[in-house]
Write a structure and sequence with these properties.
- There is one protein chain.
- This protein is an alpha/beta fold and about 300 residues long.
- The chain contains 9 helices and 13 strands.
- The strands form 3 sheets. It has an 8-stranded parallel barrel with strand order 1-2-3-5-8-9-10-13, surrounded by 5 helices. It has a two-stranded antiparallel sheet with strand order 6-7.
- Helix 6 links the parallel strand 8 and strand 9.
- Helix 1 packs across helix 2, helix 3 (about 95-110) packs across helix 5 (about 135-155) and helix 5 (about 135-155) runs parallel beside helix 6 (about 190-200).
- The longest helix has 17 residues, at about 135-155.
């Protein structure tokens, strides 16, 4: 099982020096990948409650967010071999042609190190700000993925669909990684899991108990087989929003929260269900806006067997 680590693009910790230092240290320690978060707005009165807080408000660090793709481009310039991923970009906020060009650029400049994590978004405020419609998210996502793959693999490319049109054109450069950068999707609903089975290269779950991940990934693999795909080709990249406490937490705690020993137990459980990679993110943990915390946790997790 591989280990990845977040790149600090959220909150006051997101400075040029910190992005560079974390990227280079993660590569030195042998991490497989670096990942950025997307958050477009910090609404003062959110229309959609934030799912991870008791009162629905967003965490304070979300008031300052570096663009996830620009942060990856910056990190690419200071590293040589570590993969660079998004966890995740929200499909409704983007035009697939413009996004494909940005993704292609990162992949070319990094010599083929890009990993593309995508999701459907959940914030009504962000949907309103980008002109997206909550009701069209799923329908657009299928065609969005088809357009991305067409741009990545066809030369010239042409697409005529319900939502997107591309006149027969050359769109380059093409990605270095063939046939295209892998696509990992965050998903919970059955229809979204089916989309992974049909169109993606893997699943990027977060905040789901281990037993739930095992069951849901099993469903994805079964649907992939029914769609004529090799289920063994799909990967599970688990996002671990770590929250270490001095003492153990009682039963019912969130996954990757509690004492360090409890979090190690969660890591071992992910290995048991054959997760391919765990990505550690301390952004919202105690001390998560301090570089010293990031460095200490990178050292500590990298020393674990995996």
């Amino acid at each position: 099982m591989r280990f990845g680590f977040a790149l600090p693009n959220v909150g006051p910790i997101g400075t040029p020096d910190n992005v560079r230092n974390v990227a280079q240290r993660a590569e030195e320690l042998g991490y497989s990948s670096l990942w950025t978060i997307e958050r477009l707005l910090y609404p003062v009165r959110p229309q959609t409650p934030y799912p991870a807080s008791s009162d629905g408000s967003l965490p304070e660090p979300y008031k300052l967010v570096l663009d996830p793709l620009d942060a990856l481009t910056y990190a690419a310039a200071y590293t040589r071999k570590i993969n660079l991923g998004t966890s995740v970009l929200d499909i409704p906020y983007y035009n697939p042609v413009l996004l494909a060009r940005r993704l292609n650029t990162i992949d070319v400049l990094s010599s083929g190190r890009l990993l593309v994590g995508l999701g459907l978004g959940w914030s009504k405020d962000e949907m309103d700000a980008t002109g997206a419609r909550m009701s069209e998210r799923g329908a657009r996502a299928d065609e969005f993925l088809q357009v991305l793959k067409a741009i990545w693999t066809q030369d010239p490319v042409e697409h005529t669909g319900k939502y997107y049109q591309i006149p027969k054109s050359f769109i380059g450069p093409k990605p270095v990684r063939k046939p295209h950068p892998p696509i990992y999707m965050a998903a919970f609903a059955p229809a979204a899991l089916n989309r992974i089975a049909r169109l993606a290269d893997g699943w990027n779950p977060v905040a789901i108990p281990v037993d739930g991940m095992e069951q849901m990934f099993g469903s994805i693999r079964k649907m992939a087989s029914e769609a004529g795909r090799d289920p063994e080709s799909l990967q599970m990249i688990v996002r671990a929003n770590v929250h270490i406490t001095p003492d153990s937490l009682p039963e019912g705690r969130f996954i990757f929260s509690g004492s360090f020993e409890q979090i190690v137990h969660d890591i071992e459980a992910c290995k048991r269900i054959r997760a391919h990679e765990i990505v550690f993110d301390p952004t919202f943990a105690p001390g998560g806006q301090e570089l010293a915390t990031w460095n200490a946790l990178m050292e500590r997790f990298s020393a674990l067997p995996h």
